[in-house]
Amino acid sequence: MSLIDYAVIILYLAGMLGIGVYFSKTSGESTDSFFRAGGRIPGWAAGMSIWATTLSSITFLAIPGNAYKGNWVFAFGMIVVACCMPLLIKYVIPFFRKIDATTAYEYLEKRFDSRMRVFGSIVFILFHIARMAIVIYLPTLALTAMTGLNPYIIAVAIGVLCVIYTFLGGMEGVIWSDVIQGFVLLGGILFAIIVGLTGIEGGIGEVISTGISDGKFFTSADWSWSFTEVTIPTMLVGAIFINMYQYIGSQDVVQRYNTTKSVEETGKSLMTNAWLGLLTIPLFYGMGTILYTFYAQQPELLAEGIKSDGVFPQFIVNQLPVGITGLVFGAIFAASQSTVSSSLNSLSACYTMDIIKRFRPSHPEAYYVKTAKMVILTAGILSSAAALYMVNTNQDELLKTFQSVMGLFGAPIAGVFLLGMFTTKGNATGAFWGTLISSIAMYFIQQSSLTFLYFGIIGVLGSLGLGYLISIMVDGKKEIKDLTVHTQSRHEETLSPEFSS
User: Fold this and answer.
1) Could you give the C-alpha distances from 223 to 73, 211, 230, 284, in angstroms and in order?
2) What pTM was computed for the model?
3) Residue 419 domain-assigned (yes or no)
4) Which of 383, 388, 436 lies closest to 409 in space, CA to CA?
5) From residue 224, how far is each of 24, 145, 217 by CA, in Å?
6) Count of domains in the chain?
7) 476 occurs within a structural domain
8) Which of 429, 418, 425 minimizes the C-alpha distance to 88?
9) What residues have CB less than 8 Å from 476, skipping those under 6 apart?
């Protein structure tokens, strides 16, 4: 890369650190400020933060790589998520606003017992340490291709930078950093698309023609039901359950429901996230098809033996003009940062509130804020170490790996949230054993030939079904007023007609 590219990157990274420093004054006031931004975030900013968080470097690099190697079947998962937003706005958002908890797992204790709170929190922490490792690893590949620097040094540098500005700025710093990173992401992918199209003889028409003729959008086989392959019908069903954990039981998203001033603003955040999610499809899947057409016309430009996740980084290095390379690299870095910073703050909230403050409630607020920052530091080190392992073992196909991990750790927890929210008979014994058995079963199920899309279905329904059956077999009475959708009194905050319809 040129000096101009490096200058663009340095300016961007300095800006991210500046945001952390700016919000450090308010983030340390209390755990409410550090974890929930004091409810000061506008809905559109919270929505862009959710989008940037769920996007990650997994999307920025692996989805174009997946579309380059395969086709657009995975895009139907994003369509399903967008279609589910109105249901979340109508039922889930008012429910969590009424609960008014710092972590999602506080609800599990109110509804069941402390075991479920700690269990859910630990599952989240473990999952997000693994997730952070993946989203540190992917930009490490890109930067290594661009600069030739040692990948171990790069992985450590990415982890350290994310830790610093998350450590300083708290959730408010994380969200406003995500907003800037979201714009960088959009700008970076748009520039890459423009450059790719100008390098293809026939432009966008040729991309569409090649995509249709070579099955790079969909094929007739993609419309059949399959237990071992990813197809459109299985994606439409499976994506509902895979993403259920993200929006019902995952702290990094649920935490943002209480960062806005009202339930209506939170509704706006999810609609913003939905529209940005739909925009992701033509941008990132389209980039993959553009890469396929570009290198089909000029195969000599593609490095021999390159893996699918490395195609887009190679295109960035060799085809983008001076300055734009630095911007797109900044976008890759932004995709990683937005996810890692959110994960760091959220898992810190889980450990601090669900474990430390839950069992040691008498300390001053300054003690818990200090604990939260120490957790961020520790988690950053652990995830960076895991990323180094991935570099050493040369991992590939990271999108599928990530979603498999989601099915293992997330789906049973989503099931227990459904058990608590939508049934009145679910109790602590049923919730605990149903979730534990389902989590253990998921490990063995993932060793089968089933496609990962079934992992979420089995995990959610297994945890919900087992939990309910065990609950009706074992006594476990507890006051559930305001803790299920059937018994919760009407929330003081009401949705406007725009969102309630």
Assistant:
1) 9, 17, 10, 22
2) 0.84
3) no
4) 436
5) 53, 38, 15
6) 1
7) no
8) 418
9) 427, 428, 429, 430
**Tokens describing residue 107:** 């609800």
406-432 core/surface letters (b: 16 or more CB in 10 A; e: else): bbbbbbbbbbbbbbbbebeebbbbbbb
| Cα-based distances in Å from 159 to 16, 129, 145 | 14, 12, 18
Other Cβ atoms closer than 10 A to 382: 15
Q: Which domain holds residue 60?
A: 3-399
Q: Is residue 471 part of a domain?
A: no
pLDDT digits (tens, 9 = 90+) for 28-37: 678 888 888 8
**First-residue to last-residue Cα distance in the chain:** 51
* DSSP character string of 475-490: ------TTSSTTTPPP
The 10s digit of each residue's pLDDT in 458-469 is: 889 999 999 999
CA distance 196 to 217: 18
Digit-coded pLDDT (tens) for 53-80: 887 766 777 789 889 998 999 999 889 9
| In the predicted structure, residue 490 carries a pLDDT above the cut 80 | no
As a whole number of angstroms, the distance between CA 442 and CA 485 comes to 28
How far apart are the C-alpha atoms of 399 and 414, rounded to whole Å?
Answer: 21
CA–CA separation, 169 and 430 (whole Å): 40
Q: What's the Cα-to-Cα distance from 461 to each of 95, 236, 270, 278, 466, rounded to whole Å? A: 21, 16, 25, 27, 8
Q: What is the pLDDT of residue 394?
A: 66
Give me the DSSP letters along 303-348. Answer: PTT--HHHHHHHHHHHHSPTTHHHHHHHHHHHHHHHHHHHHHHHHH
CATH number assigned to the domain comprising residue 171: 1.20.1730.10
Residue 27 lies in a domain: yes
CA distance 157 to 483: 44
Closest alpha carbon to 343 in 297, 318, 376: 376
